[in-house]
Amino acid sequence: MAERIFNFSAGPAVLPVEVLEKAREEMLSFGGIGMSVMEISHRSKHFEKVLHAAENGIRELLGVPENYKILFLQGGATLQFSMVPLNFLGSGETADYVITGAWGKKALKEAKRCGNTNVIFTTADEGFKSVPQQSDLNFTEGAKYVHYTSNETIEGVEFHYEPDGAGVPVVCDASSNILSKPLDISKYALIYAGAQKNIGPSGVTLVIIRDDLLAAVPENQHSMLDYRLLAENDSMLNTPNTWGIYIISLVCEWLRSKGGLDGIAKMNREKAAILYDAIDSSDGYYRGHAARDARSLMNITFRLPSEELEKQFCAEATAAGLDGLKGHRSVGGIRASVYNAFPKEGVTALTSLMADFAQKNG
Ligand SMILES: Cc1ncc(COP(=O)(O)O)c(C=O)c1O
Questions:
Q1: Ligand 1 pocket, 104 CB below 6 A?
Q2: Which residue, among 161, 143, 142, has the nearest Cα to 151 in the 3D structure?
């Protein structure tokens, strides 16, 4: 078998080897039933167990209170950009948006189709390098909700606190940092995430939604866009991504073996610190994109002295078995995505390369 390389992809991203091995082991006969989990009915008792394992795993890890439903939907985080306003922002009503990067901008674009939006804070003018303080957030009176992105994957900018909506329901796109650290779910009305970074494979979207929001879904909503109906049907209004949900159940098990979210958060802080130290001690050869207090622990973005050198750096990294370091096409530079499953040895391999490269090309 080919060696595994260090995969810095921003998503779909590296999965824990233990999870992949377990999935391989069970590929032909899931739990000894003589069929793959991909080959069984989503209504079977075998799959029911998988769904509950995934749901309970998420509930336990994040400490999701009883008055919240956990849904495994499709359409990616991108569909949530529309589903949130389609359910909770009527024409003539206002929702607040905090824009700290490209994904927040996309969410805003969809909300505008449904009602009024008020951008109460944006860092667009500075090129999305920071996040607001709680005291910078002045919510619109009567706003239906406030939406923000807890980690902007492209720019590498992360909130290191959980904003309080001061009575306005908080909706959060946590696609690229969910499960990377403990959260206080009671602070959110709705939190969602595409699975393909820290939760599992692409094709599943995790939505955690408070019961009072379910009650507020308008009558006559299209079925597949109706959170209430989806919740009433246990995420199985239609055929769910059974394979994806199975992998999520395994990822939850893996996270438990790592000490849960406290354990993984400690490892994430260590990994990110190694990389940011390499940037900070390079005498300006490597320049981090994000402001220090908003540096993402998941997506570490930085520049080199020129685009040519960035190209050369990526080529040398790939040749050394360090893949996926090219920054997003919209911002350029380098992006090292070091999600939960990314090994610390990959981080030190990158910092060694950085030191060598700067010495040779500085
Ligand atoms: C923060 C954030 N939001 C939304 C998305 C879009 O997710 P999806 O491709 O699942 O629709 C991404 C994808 O990378 C993301 O990083």
A1: no
A2: 161
Q: Which residues pair with 301 in a beta bridge?
A: 335
Q: Report the nearest atom of ligand 1 relative to the CA of 196.
A: 10
Distance 336 CA to ligand 1 centre (A): 17
pLDDT tens, position by position, 28-84: 999 999 999 999 999 999 999 999 999 999 999 999 999 999 999 999 999 999 999
pTM attached to this predicted model? 0.98
- Residue 122, C-beta contacts closer than 8 angstroms, at least 6 positions apart: 98, 99, 100
C-alpha–C-alpha distance, residues 249 and 242, integer Å: 11
Give CA angle at 193 (119, 106), nearest 5°.
35
Topology match between the domains 18-257 and 259-361: no
Classify domain 259-361 by CATH number: 3.90.1150.10
Strand intervals (E) in the chain: 6-7, 68-73, 94-99, 116-122, 146-149, 151-152, 157-158, 170-173, 190-194, 205-210, 287-288, 299-303, 322-323, 334-337
Tell me which of 69, 144, 173, 181 is the catalytic residue.
Answer: 173
Q: How far is the CA of 112 from the centre of ligand 1 (A)?
A: 19
- Domain limits, the chain: 18-257, 259-361
198 CB under 6 A from ligand 1? no
| Cβ–Cβ under 8 Å, residues 332 and 256 | no
- Tens-place pLDDT, residues 321-354: 999 999 998 889 999 999 999 999 999 999 999 9
Sign of the CA dihedral with 6 first, then 263, 68, and 138 last: negative
The architecture that CATH gives domain 18-257 is: 3-Layer(aba) Sandwich (3.40)
With cut-offs at 50, 70 and 90, classify the pLDDT of residue 191.
very high
